[in-house]
Write the structure tokens for this entry.
Amino acid sequence: KRMVIFASGRGSNAEALHEAVENGTINAEIKALVTDIPGAACIDKAKSWGVPVIVADRKSFDSKQAFEQYILDAIAPYAADVICLAGFMRLLSSDFISHYEHKIINIHPALLPSFRGLHAQGQAVAAGVKIAGCTVHFVVPDMDAGPIILQSAVPVLEDDTEDTLAARILTKEHPTYVRAVQLFCDDKLTIDGNVVRGTQG
Ligand code: GRF
């Protein structure tokens, strides 16, 4: 499978995917990394992997449509089978998603449908939940929605802050994202309405 990764920041999930591609766990090749943030740390990571980097600075475009069209045109030559959003902080429009139906996967640091959106880990701490975690899901136009592929749970401790919980969730994000993308690239997943099947084999 031909993979393109979208990231906006540190890129630790992108790094986990790259490592899994390199060691043969994920049957794919990473064709490019797209980022909306010039100077993001994920750029240097991608360059160290020898992966082409596409920087689309949202401020350089006079509309979301132009921003997305630039990205669509830039990644078209890679003929991606899968787009992995790994800490990508932009919402993709229905039109963009329609170009890659059921081929865009995202990881969110909460047990969806709880705690959609930003600061999900902080939302969990504030809500006083005792279990938190991460969700890997197919991307649909609704934010942090879409058919769930895998979830992993971590305990929330009484003295947790957003940062201590985020660090604990992050340790589960990497293997969970790798397993989900591995299953996708091995064509093990089917989508039945809102239910993804093939993850428990
Ligand atoms: C991760 O916690 C991910 O779940 C969220 O943003 C963070 C990105 O971290 N969407 P990184 O850039 O992958 O290290």
Q: What stands out?
A: The two ends are 20 Å apart (CA to CA). The helical segments are 12-22, 41-48, 64-75, 94-98, 120-127, 162-185. The beta strands are 2-6, 29-35, 53-55, 82-85, 104-108, 131-138, 148-155, 190-192, 195-197. The first strand starts at residue 2 and ends at 6.
